Amino acid sequence: MLLFPSSTSSTSTTATTSSTATTTTTTTPLFSPGRHLNSPKYPSKLRLIPTIKSLQSSASHPTYTDDYLVRRPVIPDDSDESSSGDGDEEEKSALDRSLENLAKKLPMFEPGKSETTEQGGIKVEPPLKVNLDLALYRAKILTRNFQFAQAQQLLQQCIYYWPEDGRPYVALGKVLRKQSRVSEARAVYEKGAQATQGENAFIWQCWAVLENELGNVRRARELFDAATVADKRHIGAWHGWAVLELKQGNLQKARNLLGKGIKYCGGNEYVYQTLALLEAKANRYEQARYLFRQATKCNPRSCASWLAWAQLEMQQENNRAARCLFEKAVQASPKNRFAWHVWGVFEANRGRVDKARKLLKIGHLVNPRDPVLLQSLALLEYKHSTANLSRVMFRRASELDPRHQPVWIAWGWMEWKEGNLSTARELYQKALSIDAATESAARCLQAWGVLEQRVGNLSAARRLFRSSLNINSQSYVTWMTWAKLEEDQGNSVRAEEIRDLYFQQRTEVADDASWVMGLMDILDPALDSIKKLLNFEQGSLKKTESVAEAKDEEVLPEVEDATSGSGFDLDVFVKEKLSLDTTNLDDQMETSLTTIARTKDQRKVYNRSRQTS
């Protein structure tokens, strides 16, 4: 180690025994690297300060102790550099210079760059990751209670603290879509895709669903494709893309996408359910039943699969099997509004009015904010009870959701049947004012056209039929109603032209059975049971149909025996699972309807107070 002089002087190579009395004070090195064999290879930057017992008083010299002190290196100022000359520079090695250059490049500690931030002079730590899950759950509850502003603010805070997590973007997009703020939702999805570097399939899927709802089918396909690229095991992307292709009439493409979903993601109840519906549409009912069974095996608590299977049996008029499947559906999800509604409509169509009324009332009491159950119950009461009771239920349903078009349409139809034409027209106009470009609007225009036709306003009826077909040109009922109008007026040629126009413009999708070979090319090899059932190895459609006919007698009893022997008691089930007493459903319904009216009055008072304030 070197002993560097503490003040500038000329370096001497010989040791001095006494100090000179001159004005310049010199210190000599105790040893040098060349003379000491055990000296380090690289010189150190530490300085050894010698002991000075008596020193002339000077402001530039500090007071030292009697021992050698080890000090950390100090950066010399400009004055020292100018006076020292080239002596120190020569003794600096290449390593010292490289370390100095490296030290200059390294950032110094700055409080602003630390993980903690200062707000008002107080250091704030970033929140823990577990707070994200709690915030997302709270935002979900706020959204469910229609407190969109609070939910949006909370989700924006989540994005600020956790920008790399995709869940806040998905939740915020849904909140904005519920408020019909489409452009803002699209911007949120785009920002989320960029923040996650395009690796979050959920964001791509939600964005694709948004574009599909807006009618941008081509853009939706691109986004679904991006979702499958981001994560090929994301079953929601494959299923959503397949549903899009189904709506566009591309059955072959839809089946291929569903097959890829099974290949990459394994068994999924939604994929099996959609495949089963395709088979039912193609009149391959045995294959459809098998796929429904696979769906319920994947998730026995999938209410949607049980309901879809029940509707298949309804179409085949297998009432006993359908009823058993409805029981399975409500057991899988006791509060599911669709299960109670479809089951109630099924019983009403079979003439079991009391059972249908009970099911619809149970569904309403479990889901008091659903307008569809009240709408169906109002129609049932109008047909088998009084119009006044039906009006009360229609009014309460419209108060629950004023933007639900089918409620206004059904209410208008009832008033038309009662002879209140002006009221019916007002209700139809109310339905169209909500949205004049939906399928519900097309049905409303068609019903309004029939009303005008019955009262003799033929020109108005024609305009309404034409407007309905501009929205939905595939409506067979509207085309034939218009043709019947012309035929009743003696315009048989015009009526024939209208029928020809329908057959010329209708979209007819040809569905063949050859898709099964292409599907099995991409299905997972483990699904040998499907191959065995559909007999794909033989490649013979006739043999497949014969297998289906041979097993038809086995499958349907299996469906019935699996449920009929369970001894399902609706009253006991409702009392245990839903805490409802079926003996006084009427009183509970009256209380529920009164609560709805009281809630509407309170909302009016609250809105009036906000406007005055």
TrEMBL record:
One GO MF term attached to the UniProt entry: mRNA binding
SUPFAM superfamilies: TPR-like
Gene3D superfamilies with a match to the protein in the record: Tetratricopeptide repeat domain
Keyword Repressor in record: no
GO BP: mRNA processing; regulation of translation
GO CC term (a single one): chloroplast
Superkingdom, natural source: Eukaryota
Comp. bias regions, Low complexity: 1-28
Annotated TPR repeat ranges: 269-302
UniProt region (Disordered), positions on chain: 1-43, 57-95
Keyword entries, A-Z: TPR repeat
Record bears the keyword Transmembrane: no
Coiled coil: none
Biased composition (Acidic residues): 77-91
Family annotation (PANTHER family): PROTEIN HIGH CHLOROPHYLL FLUORESCENT 107
Protein name (record): Protein high chlorophyll fluorescent 107
Organism: Saponaria officinalis
